[in-house]
Amino acid sequence: MKRIITILLSVIAILTFAAVPAFSEEAAIDKNFEFASVLGFIDGDNFAPEDVISRIELAEVFYNIVFPTQNIESGFWGESDFPDVPAAKKHIASAVYGMGVMRGYSDSIFAPDDIVTYNQLVKTMVSFLGYDLMAQNMGGYPSGYLSQATRLQILPGGNISGNEEVIYEMVAKMLKQSIGVDIAIWNHTGTDGSAVLDVQEDVDYLEYYRNIHIGKGTVTANYLTNLNGDKETQYFDVKINSEPMSVGEWAISLQNLIGYEVIVYYEVSDMGKLILYYEETPNTNAIKLNANQIASVVESSAGSTKISYYISDYDLAEITLSRSATAIYNGAFLSSYSLADINPFSDASKMVDGGITLLDKDGSGNYDTVIIDAFETYIVNSVIDNVIYTYDTPSNGSIDISNYKERNIDILNVLGEPLTPDVIKKGYIISVYRENTPEKKVKRMIVSKDVMSGIVDEIEKQGNKISAITVNGVRFEASGALKIFDNRNQLRAGVSVDLYFSPLRKVAYIDVDSNFT
Predict the structure, then answer these.
(1) Which residues does 57 contact at the CB level (< 8 Å), separation at least 6?
(2) Residue 287 in contact with residue 358, Cβ under 8 Å?
(3) SS3 of 377-399
(4) Where are the alpha helices (DSSP H) in 286-355?
């Protein structure tokens, strides 16, 4: 590899070259474990779903829920500080002891390294939720706690032995099962120290301890598209059932799920609602196709639109778009549209990339909404007086970004942060989103500088198009409008190439002739 130039102004280095191998690894993470890890309850960096969990590690899970930003000193909750617990963890043992969540084997023995058993986990979870006394009245440990857990519907299911060792996945699953259970808190009243159990109606542990709420709905707007035709949403914002929400670091990919039904976990502050974590619901009738996947878009004899797309390198599937389907192009409604509008990616000379999302809102099998996300990607040759000249000049001329604010042109980096035109230099890569009007006015421009040099290992195709290329052992997906500079037709395994990436981290240009050095 001769050089790697990182993405322009990227604060988090966007992980272009690790994106492909890391994705499949992340996708394999158990969803319950992912939930608990993203919200900070479980240390997902140092533990895996299948790892067994020790008593002090389990104590730390509950400590992380209740005290995410605090250190409670040993002895704060009670007299016992458990001499067998390492000094660095004493505050954790002391906190869970004081809360009545984990009592230890005695006032001086916590046994921090013992592996948690199933019965112990159930007892701890019931106690954490505040139902310890009820469990004692139902028979105590372990039967009363198992009965109480059954009543609360928090057991993970399956035929599990009480002495079976617990793994992190089981803890995560019980945490997930406990969502929606009204948490019970002992409130001390009166001078005699008497206490009353106060069940928090419709308040679970997420809301009580972490101010995390749960919502369910459809993603009706992202930074490009608003299904309801209102004002566009900013980058890092979405609308769920038309309600504005911001997305946190882990939930950034939620912006790509326009039209999908999701469950969101969010915090509420004076700044609004921030989504920390989300899950797709299984009943979302949506298909997302990138430009490479679309084989053809044709009108059937019945007047509906048939879209054929690749499900593997050479195998095709077909869906039907209803005659009255709504079309949205780069965020704007199309009152009328043609087949070319739905598939602007068919003409490679136009350098249009992106994809379409198809929604079947009534589950009829005929898709009633098509969302077109279309952009052109170019390498900048020069910028003169706020006019961008590229190595592949668009058919309608150079790209004029003068008076960009007055003309409502958004110029952004890959993180959605605003840029000024003066940062755009020769060799930078720009993706240009246009209105679907005769004037083709520039609507948004995303800027990056992301180049890699190396030796080709493998070239993959879908039909007659390159769909992916492996260079220096790393596989990269190709842009739907991939441009190859290779005057001598040399592109094959073993050849040295320069790869230029679009801001969406797909290969936009393969330079075999070193035209851009």
Answers:
(1) 47
(2) yes
(3) EEEEEEEECCEEEECCCCCCCCE
(4) 339-342
Neighbours of 237 (CB within 10 A): 18
Q: What is the mean pLDDT of residues 401-420?
A: 87
**Helical spans, DSSP H, in 291-356:** 339-342
| Neighbour-count burial of 400, counting CB atoms closer than 10 A to its CB (0-12 exposed, 13-18 middle, 19+ buried) | middle
d(CA 263, CA 267): 14
Contacts of 75 (CB under 8 A, 6+ apart): 81, 94
pLDDT band at 491 (very low <50, low <70, confident <90, very high): very high
Question: What single string gives the DSSP state of each residue in 141-178?
Answer: TTHHHHHHHHHHT----S---TTPBPBHHHHHHHHHHT
Give residue-wise pLDDT tens across range 330-349: 878 888 889 999 999 887 66
Radius of gyration for the alpha carbons in the chain, expressed in angstroms and rounded: 28
**How do residues 372-384 score in pLDDT, each as one tens digit?**
989 988 889 889 9
Two tokens, residue 262:
């999701």
What is each CA distance from 230 to 224, 241, 249, 369, 459, in whole angstroms? Answer: 12, 12, 25, 17, 43
User: How many secondary structure helices (H) and strands (E) does the chain include?
Assistant: 10, 25
Is-contact 168 48, C-beta < 8 A?
Answer: yes
The CA-CA-CA angle for residues 24, 483, 288, to 5°, reads 40
Q: Which of the residue ranges 9-18, 117-126, 290-299, 339-348 has the most confident prediction, judged by mean pLDDT?
A: 117-126
Distance CA 426, CA 202 (A): 58
Evaluated on CA atoms 94, 100, 101, 105, the torsion sign reads positive
Look at the pTM and tell me if it is higher than 0.85: no
- Give the whole-angstrom CA distance, residue 271 versus residue 511: 46
Residue 8, pLDDT > 60, answer: no
Q: Measure the CA–CA gap between 168 and 72, rounded to whole angstroms.
A: 24
Interstrand relation of 474-485 and 507-511 (parallel, antiparallel or unpaired): parallel
Which of 379, 503, 413, 305 minimizes the C-alpha distance to 11? 413
CA dist 404 and 20 (Å) reads: 35
Tell me the per-residue pLDDT of 76-102, one tens digit each, with 9 for 90 and over. Answer: 444 457 889 998 898 899 889 888 899
Q: Contact 57/114 with Cβ under 8 angstroms? A: no
Task: Please tell me the least confidently modeled range out of 182-191, 212-221, 335-344.
Answer: 182-191
Task: Rank 28-32, 261-265, 321-325 by mean pLDDT and report only the highest.
Answer: 261-265
pLDDT band at 216 (very low <50, low <70, confident <90, very high): very high
